[in-house]
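Figure 3 (text version): structure tokens given as input.
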């Protein structure tokens, strides 16, 4: 039968429209600054040092990213969090670094970091003050974006404290708050005009359903309040984020917060966090103190198979395909046709978790190769995938046809 041309045009139009819709059913307008085609990777001082950050800590950490091999594994952003600014702007209204903590200033720090093949991130706030009480960028967006660009900054984490004129607490309850969406748009547009590509990280803790509009505003958006180095926090942040995969993709990512690997959870829980973050295509921003991190922490962070899943160019986050009794199976399609599978045991006792290659979305085949990304072993299967997983642990496989 000959199909009329108009019918083909109609079919193609519908297909194109569907392609623009995320799994969420929402259009996904991507903020296109050409950056973060895969989730950003790097290190940030906050989880290890809080507000007590100095130029020496940042320089030393940059050196350690190089000598530990983490830079070459992909951890290239060195992000300075809250605490770097002086308590007031200069006479010209410019942000300035705290002269005692950062005596050589941010430009010199950017040069230091760039000379080591790394990139520099800084932190600012979309309200009147940072969460640590330092100057906010509300009303100064253009001036600050130009300043960051002039300093050679490559990444901006933009927080959400003191969110409007008159707000003197982190969340306003007296009607003065300016919507995050409006304040983040102002900095997005200021960065676009600042003349330097800068990754834009939205940190409004999942407020205002940021995942629904974040893709048109920035390269990553926090989905929850701060992650803490506890298993309970890991579980809560995972649960809040895993269903949002349809909103993320190349150029814009769900951010379940910086890694707590090496900061106090068990080795099993640390590996579970890395497995889940990689499956969800989360940014991998290490948060351990690199000066004291143990060899196991560094080796886990650098696991090449896990990183390859996180950084897969298809950019499709995993879906939770079963979750019976706290035994979770996540599956993520990969660019070369392989599938990543995570078997996560949320419970307090070891358990066997089972799924199948077809169920996980692998193409039909008589046989599959199972790469166990933590054990470093390889096995074959006709379809079944199973592992005995310790309490709070995760097994992670890359499943290849043949
Ligand atoms: C907020 C953010 C954290 C960190 C602190 C700094 O809590 O969510 O990630 O940046 O502020 O004060």
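Below: residues designed for each position.
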């Amino acid at each position: 039968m000959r199909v009329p041309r108009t019918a083909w045009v109609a079919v193609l139009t519908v297909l194109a429209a569907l392609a623009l819709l995320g799994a969420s059913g929402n259009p996904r307008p991507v903020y296109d600054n050409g950056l973060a085609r895969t989730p950003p990777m790097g290190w940030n001082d906050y989880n290890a040092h809080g507000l007590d950050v100095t130029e020496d800590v940042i320089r030393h950490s940059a050196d350690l990213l190089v000598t530990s091999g983490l830079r070459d594994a992909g951890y290239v952003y060195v992000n300075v969090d809250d605490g770097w600014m002086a308590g007031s702007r200069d006479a010209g209204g410019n942000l300035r670094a705290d002269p005692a903590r950062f005596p050589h200033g941010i430009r010199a720090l950017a040069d230091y970091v760039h000379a080591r093949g790394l990139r520099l991130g800084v932190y600012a706030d979309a309200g009147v003050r940072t969460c640590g009480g330092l100057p906010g960028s509300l009303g100064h967006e253009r001036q600050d974006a130009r300043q960051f660009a002039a300093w050679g900054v490559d990444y901006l984490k933009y927080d959400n404290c003191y969110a409007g004129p008159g707000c003197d607490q982190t969340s306003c309850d007296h009607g003065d708050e300016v919507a995050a969406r409006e304040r983040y748009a102002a900095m997005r547009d200021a960065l676009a005009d600042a003349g330097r590509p800068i990754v834009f990280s939205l940190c409004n803790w999942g407020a205002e359903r940021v995942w629904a509009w974040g893709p048109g505003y920035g390269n990553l958006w926090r989905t929850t309040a701060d992650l803490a180095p506890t298993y309970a926090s890991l579980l809560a942040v995972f649960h809040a984020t895993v269903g949002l995969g349809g909103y993320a993709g190349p150029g814009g990512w769900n951010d379940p917060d910086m890694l707590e690997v090496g900061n106090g959870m068990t080795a099993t829980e640390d590996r579970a966090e890395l497995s889940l973050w990689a499956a969800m295509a989360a940014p991998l921003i290490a948060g351990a103190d690199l000066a004291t991190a143990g060899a196991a922490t560094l080796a886990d962070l650098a696991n090449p198979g896990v990183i390859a899943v996180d950084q897969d160019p298809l950019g499709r986050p995993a879906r939770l395909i079963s979750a019976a009794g706290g035994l979770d199976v996540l599956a993520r399609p990969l660019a070369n046709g392989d599938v990543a599978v995570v078997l996560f045991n949320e419970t307090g006792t070891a358990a066997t978790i089972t799924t199948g290659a077809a169920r996980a979305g692998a193409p039909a085949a008589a046989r599959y190769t199972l790469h166990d990304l933590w054990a470093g072993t390889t096995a074959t299967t006709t379809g079944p995938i199973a592992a005995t997983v310790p309490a709070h642990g995760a097994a992670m496989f890359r499943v290849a046809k043949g």
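The CA atoms of residues 103 and 308 lie 38 Å apart.
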